[in-house]
Design goal:
Order of helices and strands: EEEHEEHHHEHEHEEHH
Strand order of the largest sheet: 5-6-7-3-8-9
Distance between the termini: 55 Å
Low-confidence stretches: 1-6, 255-260
Mean pLDDT: 90
Largest sheet: 6 strands, mixed
Helix content: 25-40%
Number of helices: 8
Bound molecules: adenosine-5'-triphosphate
Length: 260
């Protein structure tokens, strides 16, 4: 069932962590004869927030798993800096452990100190939930614990796989704001996998599109972050076009409008 490991995991901790968090060259990966991507070059600098968009099944999560060391490349080379940490769509907390112990899950056992967990929980606004049990948390709170668990490692590379997708719209906006602020404070290199064009432009310094086995777009956000400006509207339209999506249904409306 498992794909045979054909190449070793990416070497970690090799790139200069003061500079780059990820450096990939000519990366390729496929499953069962289907190539997901090939010839892919990707650099993420320390402190840079990069969002990755792409159709369902294009290989976004696979690329993230490779950077996390959970899967291997078929071809190409690269390096990732350590420490790495990840937040996924679901919080993945251990239900039998109180919140503060969950926060320290990635810390080597002998180095675990309650103080570190309390500091990380304070950063995500959950200082008063340290002794709570995961089952008592809301979805948004549980996801903030997952974020604290990642940040307590002081990652050079932070990997976010649709971490806001399961949250309600208001909680999602608050959580996006929190992630943006914490990334600015801790400045890891960050890769956010998302389906949400607005989210990508709101959070990222650069937005990539994975399509037809390649990164077909690598756009700097800059002043396009604000969706109410012409630059913001243009960037969103460009990304939707790259993804082959018509967000306003204009084509369909045009078609019905011309019908008798
Ligand atoms: N371990 C595996 N073995 C076989 N096929 C796999 C494996 N992991 C992923 N795939 C396949 O690779 C393709 C890409 O999966 P991946 O999860 O990377 O896509 P994605 O772009 O993240 O999709 P989504 O946006 O829907 O999450 C899918 O067709 C998936 O079924």
């Amino acid at each position: 069932m498992n794909q045979a490991i054909r190449t070793p995991l990416l070497p970690v901790g090799v790139v200069d962590p003061a500079d780059k968090a990820v450096a990939l060259k000519g990366a390729a990966k496929g499953f069962g004869g289907r190539i997901l991507f090939e010839g892919l070059d990707l650099t993420i600098r320390r402190g840079e927030f990069v969002a990755l968009l792409g159709a369902s099944g294009s290989g976004k999560t696979t690329l993230l798993r490779i950077l996390l060391g959970l899967d291997t490349l078929d071809a190409g080379e690269g390096e990732v800096a350590t420490p790495r940490a990840a937040v996924f769509q679901e919080p993945r907390l251990v239900p039998s452990q109180p919140v503060w112990r969950n926060v320290l899950m990635g810390v080597p056992r002998r180095a675990r100190q309650r103080r570190q967990a309390l500091d990380a929980l304070a950063e995500v606004g959950l200082a008063d939930h340290a002794d709570a049990w995961p089952v008592t948390l809301s979805g948004g709170e549980a996801q903030r614990v997952a974020l604290a668990r990642a940040l307590v490692l002081e990652p050079t590379l932070l990997l976010l796989d649709e971490p806001f997708a399961a949250l309600d719209a208001l909680t999602r906006l608050k959580m996006q704001d929190l992630v943006r602020r914490l990334c600015a404070r801790h400045h890891p290199g960050t890769l956010l996998v998302t389906h949400d064009v607005d989210e990508a432009v709101r959070l990222a310094d650069r937005v990539l599109v994975l399509r037809d086995r390649r990164l077909t777009l690598d756009a700097t956000v800059g002043e396009a972050r604000d969706g109410t400006t012409p630059a913001g509207a243009r960037m969103r339209a460009r990304l939707y076009a790259e993804l082959g999506v018509d967000p306003l249904g204009l084509e369909a409306a045009g078609a019905s409008g011309s019908a008798p």
